[in-house]
Amino acid sequence: MNDINIKNGDIENSPDIPIETEIIGIRFKKSGKIYYFDPNGMTFNEGDHTIVETSRGLEYGNVVLSNRMVKTSEIVNPLRCVLRAATDDDEIHYKENELKEIDAYNICIEKISEHKLDMKLIDVEYTFDNNKLLFYFTADGRVDFRDLVKDLASVFRTRIELRQIGIRDEAKIMGGLGVCGRSFCCHSFLGDFVQVSIKMAKEQNLSLNSTKISGACGRLMCCLRYEYDVYSEELKNTPPVDSIVETPDGDGVVIETVPLAGLVKVRLQKTPDQPSSVYNRDKVKVKGFIRREAEKNTGDSDLPED
């Protein structure tokens, strides 16, 4: 494929460069990242199996996005071509590799024990052409596995690669059940890990107890990200807690909000000892904000004092 020149985010006008390019999306692992390939004139449907060449060698992949046209400017070159649709022999070879991976896993466990290495083996993977055998492991720190690699190479007679992965990657590979009772999102459908922060829990008014908002991996749950954009948008249109608002029943202070429902709970100034009243956010008008005593003393707040 010709090199693509991009200027100011657009392809430079050139008759030799097509505006759109045909691609298919392929995954090599369940819920793994989707990689794009040139279908090489062939037509594939979701669920079809293919043989492609990658930086690791020949790989057996599963089609998750059928043939489609995308803007050439959105493609990261070089775009590799699909070699062929998987044949019956390819399917048999792939199944044989899966059985070999089980044996390799058990042998590696024994070798780790023999070398007394402080590491936990998570997964083993053969490339389709058997030119490389990859071992994925976790460890608290750096591990000197040079002698282990030599032993494994002498047993399997192929290139050996050991990769240390993080705790989130371990959960993605191993799988399990989350606190919701469903399979881990990362193991079932998330191709990439999403960025999650404690701010997302705060804006959704969730408990900030780490044990309640952390997944089995010990990191913040990926699902905190799912509704965050909606909450952020709704919060822009909702008077915040501690704002002074004008309501149909008089002025009051917002003590609680329900952004998705568009509701605010207000403690009216004229009846502070009475139960709070609930209003639609469209029925109230922000007049100012309460300044906390600590903020008054330090001058940290730039909010107007009412």
Tell me the number of strands. Answer: 15
Largest pleated sheet: 5 strands, antiparallel
Work out the strand percent. 25-35%
Average pLDDT works out at 86
Proportion in helices: 10-25%
Distance between the termini: 66 Å
Stretches where pLDDT is under 50 for at least 5 consecutive residues are 1-12, 293-306
- Quaternary class: single chain
Q: How would you describe the shape?
A: elongated
- Rg, alpha carbons: 28 Å
Number of domains: 4
Structural class: alpha+beta
Order of helices and strands: EEEEEEEHEEHEHHHHHEEEEEH
The number of helical segments is: 8
Description:
It is a single chain. This protein is an alpha+beta fold. It folds into four domains: 6-86, no CATH class; 92-165, GMP Synthetase, Chain A, domain 3, CATH 3.30.300.20; 171-230, no CATH class; 237-298, SH3 type barrels. The chain is built from eight helices and 15 strands. It has helices spanning 88-115, 146-156, 167-174, 185-188, 198-203, 210-213, 228-236, 293-298, and strands at residues 6-7, 10-11, 20-27, 35-37, 49-54, 57-71, 82-85, 120-126, 132-138, 159-164, 243-247, 250-258, 263-268, 277-280, 285-289. Strands 4-3-6-5-7 form a five-stranded antiparallel sheet, with no helix packed on it. The protein has a five-stranded antiparallel sheet with strand order 14-13-12-11-15, with no helix packed on it. A three-stranded mixed sheet has the order 8-9-10, sandwiched between helices. Strand 13 and strand 14 form a beta hairpin. The radius of gyration is 28 Å and the shape is elongated. The N and C termini lie far apart (66 Å).
